[in-house]
Amino acid sequence: MRPQMMKIFENMRSDNALSIQNAKDTGLKVVGIFCAYSPMELVLAAGAIPVGLCGTKHEPIAAAEKILPRNLCPLIKSSFGFAVTDTCPYFRASDFIIAETTCDGKKKMFELLGQIKPVHVMHLPQGTGRPGALRWWLEELHLLKERLEEHLGVTISREDLRAAIRLCNRERTALKNLHELNRLDPAPMTGLDMLTTIFVKGFNVDKEEGTGLINQLAEEVRNIAAQGISPFVKGTPRILLTGCPVGIGSEKVVRLLEECGGSVVCFESCSGIKTLEYLVDEDEQRDPLEAIAERYLQIPCSCMSPNPGRLELLGRLIGDYKVDGVVDLSWQACHTYIVEGELVRRHVKDNFGLPYIQLETDYSTSDIEQLKTRISAFIEMLSGS
Ligand code: SF4
Ligand code: SF4
């Protein structure tokens, strides 16, 4: 039995495109973001609506390749393609864009994007271990606050920031609670439904309302699970998907993993639990910007060097979700995730004795058969182990 609430989540991206336009007509501003390091709290505290702009579809890539090199990750090309073809309502609605210096391809693409829309690029430290990293990042947050205030014509108060911190923490907690329902065996939700739910949160006009819907869905899933109903039979191999972010439109690997007999129970990526694990400290005695800076620097992305937090998180998730195998998805030409894959492979195999596979692909359907063969063999091995 599929949760009835999923119908609402499935249509949310298109429904919210309309709501965004309506909100703009009433004078609200929209701020586009591309990465989990974008501090949403500042956008909300500025009274604006944050929307995710990461491209997850293959269609605009051909237009992007007229300008960008072809051997670039599909996420960058798709995002840029939507911008140059003006085919994404969320990009069109954005009054201002927050970007970060994460991977090389993305940060250079942002310079081109800056010729289409106002873009502010935050400079991330390259790692979190150096004593000055947090100080540097906090400076960047102060600079972003100034830019937002200037550009949107607002003043962001400490109280605005504190209210936004509480709101974002509530949303993260709701999504984390939902994601954690898949610790049950068999999992009560398919990976595809889980991905859909987490993905569409990036298009919510009203975060309070969106959080309420996530809680309602979790309640429905809990009830379904309590009746012993699951889309999977007991013994279905439980997969943890790690690596590059996935979205609706670029979900082919998730789909194939489940079509070939697996159950994707956990997403250790920016499409899943990676961004939900860390909350901003709500202590009223603290400088809210410092608390925000601290939280965002904990995100264990491969653009950080070194990135021990990802291995630590993976270890924890493997145990919590009773994982049978790890699938590491890398978009083609995503050097940081592809190279880090070797450390992930060693960690998964040597410390947990689990099967691991790295899949490198793009957004096209040209390699579906090849992927299917590799995935089927992997799932078969898990079923027999
Ligand atoms: S994987 Fe890294 S660069 Fe990509 S969205 Fe997540 S934090 Fe940002
Ligand atoms: S998937 Fe990799 S190459 Fe692509 S934008 Fe993210 S970090 Fe950069």
Task: Outline the structure in words.
There is one protein chain. The two termini are 29 Å apart. Helix 14 links the parallel strand 7 and strand 8. This protein is globular. The chain contains 15 helices and 8 strands. The chain has 385 residues and is of the alpha/beta class. The strands form 2 sheets. Strands 2-1-3-4 form a 4-stranded parallel sheet, sandwiched between helices. A 4-stranded parallel sheet has the order 6-5-7-8, with helices on both faces. Helix 13 packs across helix 14. 51% of the residues lie in helices and 11% in strands. The structure holds iron/sulfur cluster (2 copies). One iron/sulfur cluster binds next to loops. The site of one iron/sulfur cluster has 9 residues, from loops.
Q: Could you name the key traits of this structure?
A:
globular, 15 helices, four-stranded parallel beta sheet, about 375 residues, alpha/beta, binds iron/sulfur cluster
